[in-house]
Write a structure and sequence with these properties.
16 helices, three-stranded antiparallel sheet, eight-stranded parallel beta barrel, TIM Barrel, 2 domains, alpha/beta
Length: 457
């Protein structure tokens, strides 16, 4: 029997100003004005995407004690943007990253439940932890939690928030005889939670939302992160965008679901993916090379090298050879608030590898950063990109992709106009929304329905 074609899930990430975007391009717009977010969201909805995704930045990045102004320089509050976008969209899901290390379950649950009501059931929460003390300096708790405790807190945070979401489940609506106001009975919203990280009780004051509770996303790639996603998330962001690596990650995480009583459809794997389109594959390849050079200026290349060398390299020529000196492996790092610091756990080994690559290819510092940094995931004509995306999904390397354009807010337009129709013609992507909530778009059961199905079984 022929295996039925999987339906592709597509979403869009508004990346802000960072090394993915070419923010200096004349076509780039504001990364803080609402008109940019509105255009981006409307394009995603016009293309029938599942959702829009916003990341969260809790502190400006620094390097050498100064604000890193070649990268993210600020963004409005995630909840504020998503609530505003709910008013200018009708079906598009609205997903936000909210940190579990520096927030409280009651506050976050109330905000997401409110957003779910305001949007008619389109909210989603990307649950993350914070890894660095630098960000923690903005908060009372600081950065004291080691990785295992951060995930312990995150799990209990999500459990507690779920208890709050579910505290209105199954209660009847009654009328107050004196005021005439319709209220739920006195037990509605009541909660008690006692645990290692949270000891709270009271009344949750937001009624059951249209989705029952928001869709839950998770982005960790560690062993703890994969287990967390398998046990509690509805979807997981992945950084594995190649076919082989994507298939390995997909198989690993999906195989963890059974021990939590979940099936393969209960958790979606959605890698982030960049793209460059051209009329032909050759044109797209040439444009992709130009985009990478725009993303990595000489100044950016030196700053990137400083992540590994942990030294001030401003005196070096970015078009010249790599430094002869070795990286400084001290605990005090020159770069603050960047994920790349964690990626390069053995800077001496990375430096040796990069010197060998540079010597073999006659690369300058800038050439090296361009060629070892993130490359576009999908490059080619609309036909090539549509075919490749479908091949990846049908080969179980993912369930779809979260697209990150290099130009905002208009960088999604061409994909919506030229690639989406090809996927629709192949019968692997919707032509219209069939439901109203994000759970409908993602094919996820309503929590109340899932509870009933488990009880019946």
């Amino acid at each position: 029997m022929t295996k039925p074609l999987k339906q592709i899930h597509l979403a869009a990430h508004f990346p802000g100003v960072n090394n993915t975007t070419v923010w200096s391009d004349p076509e780039a717009g504001s990364h803080i004005e609402f008109s940019s977010f509105a255009h981006f969201a409307r394009t995603a909805e016009r293309a029938k995407f599942d959702f829009l995704f916003l990341a969260e930045g809790l502190r400006l990045r620094e390097q050498g004690g100064k604000i890193y102004d070649l990268d993210v320089v600020g963004r409005p509050d995630t909840f504020t943007i998503l609530a505003a976008l709910a008013a200018v969209t009708d079906r598009l899901g609205l997903t936000g990253t909210i940190n579990s290390t520096f927030n409280e379950p009651y506050e976050v649950a109330r905000q997401f439940a409110s957003l779910d009501h305001l949007s008619g059931g389109r909210s989603a929460w990307n649950v993350v932890t914070s890894w660095d003390a630098f960000t923690g300096e903005n908060f009372r708790r600081g950065g004291f939690l080691p990785q295992d405790e951060r995930y312990s807190r995150a799990k209990e945070f999500l459990t507690t928030a779920t208890e709050l979401f579910d505290s209105w489940h199954g209660d009847e609506i009654v009328a107050d005889q004196e005021t005439g106001v319709f209220l739920r009975d006195a037990k509605a919203g009541a909660f008690v939670h006692t645990g290692q990280h949270f000891d709270i009780h009271g009344q949750f004051n937001v009624p059951r939302s249209p989705q029952g509770r928001p869709v839950i996303f998770q982005a960790g790639d560690s062993e703890e992160g994969r287990e967390f996603a398998a046990s509690a998330a509805d979807a997981i962001f992945s950084r594995y965008a190649t076919l082989k690596d994507g298939q390995a990650f997909y198989t690993d995480v999906k195989n963890r679901l059974a021990k939590y009583g979940r099936g393969h459809r209960d958790l979606l794997i959605l890698p982030a993916a960049t793209f460059v389109l051209g009329d032909t594959d050759a044109e797209a390849e040439e444009l992709a090379r130009e985009v990478r050079r725009q993303q990595v200026s000489g100044a950016t290349a030196l700053k990137h090298l400083e992540f590994v060398w942990n030294r001030d390299l401003s005196s070096y020529d970015p078009e010249g050879p790599l430094p002869d000196i070795d990286p400084d492996v001290s605990e005090n790092h020159i770069s603050k608030g960047r994920a790349q610091v964690r990626m390069y756990r053995d800077p001496l080994a990375i430096a040796r590898e990069w010197r060998e690559l540079a010597a073999a290819n006659n690369w300058s510092i800038r050439d090296l950063v361009i060629n070892t940094g993130n490359r576009q995931t999908f490059v080619g004509s609309p036909e090539t990109v549509a075919r490749t995306i479908n091949d990846y999904v049908q080969a179980d390397a993912s369930d779809g992709f979260i697209l990150v354009p290099h130009i905002t807010p208009t960088g999604l337009d061409t994909f919506a106009d030229k690639v989406v129709p090809l996927l629709q013609e192949q019968g692997v992507f919707r032509t219209e929304y069939e439901g109203t909530t994000l759970r409908d778009h993602l094919g996820l059961a309503h929590p109340d329905h899932a509870r009933g199905e488990r009880a019946a079984s």
